[in-house]
Amino acid sequence: GVLSWYGLYSAHLHVALALVPIIPFLPVDQRETAHIFEADIHEHSTLTRFEHDWRIFIDFGLFFFGLSNAGVQFSEFGVPTWLVFCALLFGKTIGITLLGILARLMGFPLPNDMGLKELFTAGIVAAVGLTVALFMATAAFVDLNIQGAAKMGALLSALIAVIAVAFGRVLHIKRIE
């Protein structure tokens, strides 16, 4: 990890990407990947315990990370605002839906109780881009005016949650426990 971080730092790249080349080589217990889409409330693997114990902290942490790193005034609207917003809404929704369909055609089943309408709604939910979109806007744009407008598009993507709830109700998506 430290070597990767230092290499990215020396190459003048964003050091937040340091784990990207490391993650594929982390050890994984095969039992944890055997039934990846099947919920088991009695499962006590390290990954499951970590996920359940830290979920609320991570959710709040990501939310406040997004807000604190935004650094944008609400008056910074422009073409990049709408480009980022539309890219998140349409790009993620279409991408997740089409790749889910493609995976299903290739023989990879969707999780239990998940059909195309649930997949489509999940794509809309994934379009809320507070953290990654803010990070990418900062890394991609040098001009502060363009950067601010792009960040505003990422912040506006929080409104996509309202769209997701509306689609969920229109499509009669049921909560699965």
Protein traits:
about 180 residues; 8 helices; about 65% helix
Topology:
Blueprint: H1 2-10, H2 30-34, H3 46-70, H4 79-105, H5 116-126, H6 131-140, H7 144-156, H8 160-170
Helix pairs in contact: 3-6, 4-5, 4-7, 5-8, 6-7
Structure overview:
The structure is a single chain. This protein is mainly alpha-helical and 177 residues long. It has a domain of 116 residues. It contains eight helices and no strands. 18% of the residues are buried.
Could you give a short account of the major beta sheet? none
Tally of separate helices = 8
Radius of gyration: 19 Å
Helix content: 55-70%
**In what range is the share of β-strand residues?**
under 5%
Structural class: mainly alpha
Q: Quote the average pLDDT.
A: 82
Low-confidence stretches: none
SSE order, one letter for each helix or strand:
HHHHHHHH
Shape: globular
How far apart the termini lie comes to: 37 Å
Number of strands: 0
Q: Summed up, what is this model?
A:
With 177 residues, the chain is an all-alpha fold. It contains eight helices and no strands.
